[in-house]
Amino acid sequence: MSEEEISWVRAMDPRDSKLNILLLALPITCYYAYIEHDESMAFFSSLVAIMPLAFLMGRATEEIALRTSESVGGLLNATFGNAAEMIIAFLAIYAASKAAAGSETEELMVNLVQASLIGSILGNLLLVMGLAFVWGGIHYTEQKFSQTQVSSNGSLMLLAMIVLIIPAVFNSTVGGSEGEMGVTNLSHIAAIILLALYGLFLYFQFKTHVDLFATEAHNHEEPGMSQRDAAILLVVATILVSWMAEILVHSVEYAADDMGLPHLFIGVILLPLFGNAAEHFTAVTVAGKDKMDLSFAISMGSSTQIAVFVAPMMIIIAWALGVPLTFEFGMLETVSAFLAVLIVNIIASDGKSNWLEGALLLGTYVVLGAAFLFHP
User: Fold this and answer.
1) Which of 142, 123, 124, 120 is nearest to 357 (CA)?
2) Is the confidence at residue 141, as pLDDT, over 70?
3) Lowest mean pLDDT among 71-85, 171-185, 324-338
4) Nearest to 300 by CA among 359, 361, 356
5) Backbone φ and ψ of 186, nearest 5°
6) Residue 162 CB neighbours (<10 A)
7) pLDDT per residue over 165-179, tens digit each?
8) Distance, CA of 226 to CA of 224 (rounded, Å)
9) What is the Cα–Cα distance from 287 to 132, expressed in whole angstroms?
10) For the chain, what is the mean pLDDT?
11) pLDDT tens digits for range 17-63
12) pLDDT tens digits, one per residue of 227-244
């Protein structure tokens, strides 16, 4: 390996990462959650603790996928990069199932799940991709990535946006109890269809049309740990993320009231920002190495996975637990997600990127973030 590649491997070593200092938030969270019983501090410290844990999960995933193609590596990074959001969403649904039907707690948990899912889509499409375009554009005048990735992921994202828009239109058209029941049934059907289509997309990408997504393998990078150590690290980090997520979910209501922050802002901006920190770091860093196929696979692929796998999976789980979670996410959330998908499809359609396009994506994210901050 070259000196640059050796420094890259070492920089990603979890033992050397400066981000690991944030693991101190673990005992701090336990102190506030179980000794001081300060729910607000427990919320923010658990939010911080999830960052290094998510980073370690991402590091373990990279080790496991080190010798795969960039498309497979991107899929694995996207999957485990979304693990924190999936865990938080599942625990929120479980908390809603234990609350009384129609109670404020149930409504809060349902809204938290919907907001965090939309926030993950917005964060990956606009913030992560925007930072990657800017950072890569600083080092290279123009960068290229697979147009096939743009086309296939973009089509799936547009389908997901249809699934978000139709329930809202249906409910406003029909209204009343019939409208609510129709939205619920429509969401269940749409969730099953989306999961089936995502399975077909993976089959298309990795089986029947693998040549369209083919990129060079990561053979020039050497593993920093054994497969066994990587698997152990992945399991331990996942368990700790689940623990911190449980504390976070049960303290979010108190933190929102104490800090005067809208629940929508916490769900859409804060949770995905901290939960996706490791994924953000990876996508941006590899963009600076001119590995735009991998960077795009992480950012766009992660959004696609949230929209057509994680979201419908949460709908199915909520259905099984009797929680009224549907695809009617709210007008502001739905319009924001649709506009984000639209601008990304337009900007990335040529398979090229530069720093100005990244700045446009970041500007869009800031405007939408301000809208959620000032939302009552």
Assistant:
1) 142
2) yes
3) 71-85
4) 361
5) -65, -40
6) 10
7) 998 888 888 877 777
8) 7
9) 5
10) 83
11) 577 888 899 999 999 999 988 988 999 999 999 888 888 887 777 77
12) 788 888 888 988 898 899
201: which 2 tokens?
A: 């997309």
74 is in which domain, residue-wise?
3-373
pLDDT tens-digit readout, 286-310: 888 888 888 888 888 888 889 999 9
Bridge partners of 58, per DSSP, are: none
Nearest to 307 by CA among 85, 157, 88: 157
Return the closest-CA partner of residue 168 out of 336, 46, 335, 345: 335
Structurally, how many domains does the chain consist of? 1
Q: Residue 236 is part of a domain; what is its CATH number? A: 1.20.1420.30
b or e along 8-27 (b: 16 or more beta carbons within 10 Å of the residue's beta carbon)? eeeebebeebebeebbebbe
Say how many Å lie between the first and final Cα of the chain, rounded. Answer: 54
What pTM was computed for the model? 0.84
Instruction: Give me the pLDDT at residue 208, please.
Output: 81
